[in-house]
């Protein structure tokens, strides 16, 4: 059980800061926050200029470091660090998935910042495209706030400040989308960002999304997952994937991962032969 205070706000650390934190911990094994920041400075990392690190609390909520010891990687964290050094784009993709899914992966921990991340993602997907976010940020934050306040899955009593979100929460969220490849953020002529669904995503994100739905639906592995309209939307929301891109990515994932397959039998069905772990990702 996490000892962190549950909050809906998505805090400042973005993918770059989380990378620097993980790299510092892996390289120097610090045992205190001052030691971490000194080591980060020695490595040339920007987090070394901070008075206090907040990256560990984010990583703890996402299941990457031990919630009771921010300098100890979990099994998930060990695998993520391996990916981080091997493939930076895949690292950013996995961070997106872990942030999106933590609220559901750890239901007893009340990871409300993940709820915010998920609902902001779903809102952008459902209402895309956005040519620009200019004038839209307040609306998006208001819609997600209302969803949280009305959701039967959210126990607001578990947080001290209620559903406290702002446009800063949304701007911090966009740091993660900005690092995704293929891109989902677009720019207009004035340099203002907007959003559009992408026609392709890494197949690794597809199989992580399908595995997450297997778990949430309590579907047994080695059995078929029927791709209803709702299931397809859930996968596409996690992957930020267009309708046209769905078929191409499932085809690509089937070729890349032998434990994943699809079958057309009175509609599309997907099948995972076993649980997907980060160590499976190529």
Give your account of this protein's structure.
This protein is mainly alpha-helical and 282 residues long. The protein contains 11 helices and 7 strands. The protein has helices at residues 15-28, 33-42, 55-61, 75-86, 88-105, 112-127, 137-150, 167-178, 203-217, 229-239, 243-256; strands spanning 65-66, 69-73, 185-187, 193-195, 224-226, 260-264, 268-272. The strands form 3 sheets. It has a 3-stranded antiparallel beta sheet with strand order 5-7-6, with helices on one face. Strand 1 and strand 2 form a beta hairpin. Helix 5 (88-105) runs parallel beside helix 9. The protein is globular. The model has no long low-confidence stretch (mean pLDDT 95).
Mean pLDDT: 95
Number of E-type strands: 7
The helix content is: 40-55%
Output the strand order for the largest sheet.
5-7-6
Q: What is the straight-line distance between the termini?
A: 31 Å
Topology as H/E string?
HHHEEHHHHHEEHEHHEE
Strand content: 5-15%
Radius of gyration: 19 Å
The secondary structure category is: mainly alpha
Count every helix, treating DSSP H or I runs of 4 or more residues as helices.
Answer: 11
Uncertain parts: none
Biggest sheet statistics: 3 strands, antiparallel
- What is the approximate shape? globular
């Amino acid at each position: 059980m996490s000892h962190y205070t549950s909050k809906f706000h998505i805090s400042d650390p973005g993918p770059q800061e989380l990378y620097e934190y993980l790299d510092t911990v892996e390289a120097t094994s610090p045992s205190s926050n001052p030691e971490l920041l000194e080591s980060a400075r020695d490595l040339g990392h920007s987090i070394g200029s901070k008075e206090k690190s907040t990256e560990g609390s984010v990583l703890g909520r996402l299941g990457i470091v031990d919630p009771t010891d921010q300098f100890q990687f979990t099994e998930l964290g060990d695998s993520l660090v391996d990916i981080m050094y091997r493939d930076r784009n895949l690292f950013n993709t996995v961070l997106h998935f872990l942030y999106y899914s933590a609220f559901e992966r750890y239901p007893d921990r009340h990871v409300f910042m993940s709820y915010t991340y998920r609902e902001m993602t779903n809102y952008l997907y459902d209402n895309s495209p956005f040519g620009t976010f200019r004038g839209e940020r307040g609306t998006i934050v208001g819609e997600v706030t209302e969803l949280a306040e009305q959701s039967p899955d959210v126990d607001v009593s578990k947080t001290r400040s209620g559903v406290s979100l702002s446009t800063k929460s949304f701007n911090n969220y966009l740091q993660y989308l900005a690092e995704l490849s293929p891109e989902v953020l677009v720019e207009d002529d004035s340099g203002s960002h907007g959003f559009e669904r992408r026609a392709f995503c890494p197949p690794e994100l597809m199989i992580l999304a399908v595995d997450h739905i297997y778990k949430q639906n309590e579907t047994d592995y080695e059995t078929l997952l029927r791709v209803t309209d709702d299931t397809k939307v859930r996968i596409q929301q996690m992957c930020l994937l267009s309708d046209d891109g769905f078929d191409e990515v499932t085809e690509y994932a089937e070729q890349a991962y032998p434990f994943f397959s699809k079958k057309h039998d009175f509609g599309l069905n997907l099948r995972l032969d076993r649980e997907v772990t980060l160590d499976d990702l190529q």
